UniProtKB/TrEMBL annotation:
The protein, known as: Probable glycine dehydrogenase (decarboxylating) subunit 2
UniProt family annotation: Belongs to the GcvP family. C-terminal subunit subfamily.
Assigned EC number: 1.4.4.2
GO terms assigned for molecular function: glycine binding; glycine dehydrogenase (decarboxylating) activity; pyridoxal phosphate binding
Catalytic activity: N(6)-[(R)-lipoyl]-L-lysyl-[glycine-cleavage complex H protein] + glycine + H(+) = N(6)-[(R)-S(8)-aminomethyldihydrolipoyl]-L-lysyl-[glycine-cleavage complex H protein] + CO2
Cofactor: pyridoxal 5'-phosphate
Gene: gcvPB
Provenance organism: Aneurinibacillus migulanus
């Protein structure tokens, strides 16, 4: 589209003296050849980006059953409220007395999340689930150190989310993986073997990445507490338990939530998120600072947390996402939130039962908000789970999570969420059944999918390892040999 001399702006000629770049920027830092930028009109630019956005799949454009990610509808009332000037046009360094309304939102959200999780306090600072995990582990570490105990092992079942062992490492602790049993629960014998005086904590993803609720939760809590360890609850998928049960009641000491999943913050594409943590009394003095507190009718920041691990995020967390979560919680109320989970679980079980005749179901028991299928049967016919995921694109769906959790061969992890209608669920089920039939009758149609998308299969390894992050003119026009990347053709 580029035409030499064309521009998307029209500025008057500068009437102030221009700076001689060479006098202010060291020579080595000056660009040697002119930047290669596309030269296009404003309308070309607009159409280019609008067309790109149309190629993207989002929850507003179609069904998005990406397991563990809770891609549910993001209600537009959240967006309306987030755009109120009183929220959108304030600055985090404004004096407390000028932002009392914003502080009240944060304080009320803390209180709501305490009630939802059964915890004594909540910090809204962590910007994502993984950062919430890390924050909680830093508190656990500080707790043991404060008591003069040397505990550095964190037990992580093999059904945990992948971020769990990663957060353990980043927190300077050591992950000990334990297997699950044939029903998908934590193997209690294995757990008893590994707990001991070096156990800092157990991290449990519940429901697990198999979409299953841990059946022996009270016994697990007793075993870990009995050994002096703490219990961490990965509550990223609270979508399954809202108003039904609470980590605090199950004996857990600390929990993180993903407001961008369960509580409808728009997400995907890397953010923004919010991963608040909640903790019980014994961990209060280690919380990040500041906390938001209420004195009489006045809201303020409290920096006086004696053993605080410090600040974990600039300012006070992702305010916009916290605000949206508050709107969502208030729009639903306690009974509404309970219905959210009941319907999320109902939808997942409905879909699981409908698909069970066509795909292998490795754990045949009631699931929570999501379930896993195995493509073992189709693999024998020469069709991999990756191929089926690509084929789903032809039907206009975002594929489910695939090849995770690792303990299920040719895994597909499907999360329909409560916001989809029965018709949408049925249409997706039909597409999955058709794909299972094609695997038997015409495998090449799946192996060569997608057929109806703008581009066919991407070279995913090269895209990840050698990303092309800047515009480059087609090779014959550009200054050859100066660039790092070869131009790519879509
Ligand atoms: C999504 C998820 C996480 C990580 O959350 P991020 O916000 O992506 O960092 C952790 N645990 C579970 C179970 C999850 O589903």
């Amino acid at each position: 589209m580029s035409r030499t001399g064309r521009a998307a702006y029209d500025l008057p000629k500068s009437d102030v003296p221009t700076v001689d770049m060479e006098s202010v920027i060291p020579k080595g830092n000056l660009r040697q050849t002119p930047a290669e930028l596309p030269e296009v009109s404003e309308l070309d630019l607009m159409r280019h980006y609008t067309e790109l956005s149309n190629r993207n799949h989002g929850i507003d454009s179609g069904f998005y059953p990406l397991g563990s990610c809770t891609m549910k509808y993001n209600p537009k009332i959240n967006e309306d409220v987030a755009r109120y000037p009183g929220f959108a046009k304030i600055h985090p360094y404004q004096a407390e007395e000028t932002v009392q309304g914003a502080l009240q939102v944060l304080y009320d959200l803390q209180t709501e999340l305490e009630e939802i999780t059964g915890m004594d306090a909540v910090s809204l600072q962590p910007a994502a689930g993984a950062q919430g995990e890390w924050t909680a582990l830093m508190m656990i570490r500080a707790y043991h150190e404060n008591r003069g105990e040397k505990r550095n092992k964190v037990i992580v079942p093999d059904t945990a989310h992948g971020t769990n062992p990663a957060s353990v490492s980043v927190a300077g602790l050591e992950a000990v993986t334990i297997p699950s049993d044939e029903k998908g629960n934590v193997d209690l014998e294995e757990l008893r073997k590994v707990v001991g005086p070096d156990t800092a904590a157990l991290m449990l993803t519940n429901p697990s990445t198999l979409g299953l609720f841990e059946e022996n939760i009270s016994e697990i809590a007793d075993i870990v507490h009995g050994a002096g360890g703490l219990l961490y609850y990965d509550g990223a998928n609270t979508n399954a338990i809202l108003g039904i049960t609470r980590p605090g009641d199950m004996g857990f000491d600390v929990v993180h939530l993903n407001l961008h999943k369960t509580f409808t913050g728009p997400h995907g594409g890397g953010g923004p998120g919010s991963g608040p943590i909640g903790c019980k009394k014994e961990l209060l003095s280690f919380l990040p600072r500041p906390q938001i507190v209420k004195d009489g009718e006045v809201y303020r920041f409290d920096y006086g947390i004696p053993n605080s691990i410090g600040r974990v995020k600039a300012y006070y967390g992702n305010f916009g996402i916290n605000l949206r979560a508050h709107v969502y919680i208030r729009s639903n109320g306690p009974t509404g939130l309970q219905r959210v989970s009941e319907e999320a679980v109902l939808n997942a079980n409905y879909m699981m039962r409908k698909l069970a005749p066509y795909y292998d179901l490795p754990y045949d028991r009631i699931c929570k908000h999501e379930f896993v299928l195995s493509g073992k049967r189709q693999k024998k016919l020469g069709v991999r789970t990756l191929d089926m995921a690509k084929r789903l694109l032809d039907f206009g769906y975002h594929p489910p999570t695939i090849y995770f959790p690792l303990i299920v061969e040719e895994c597909m992890m499907i999360e329909p969420t409560e916001t989809e209608s029965k018709e949408t669920l049925d249409e997706f089920i039909d597409a999955m059944i058709q794909i299972a039939r094609e695997a038997e009758e015409d495998p090449t149609v799946i192996q060569e999918a997608p057929h109806h998308t703008v581009i066919s299969r991407l070279d995913e390894v090269n895209a990840a390892r050698k990303p092309v992050l800047r515009y480059k003119k087609p090779v014959e026009e550009s200054v050859k040999g100066s660039g790092i990347h070869e131009p790519v053709q879509a």
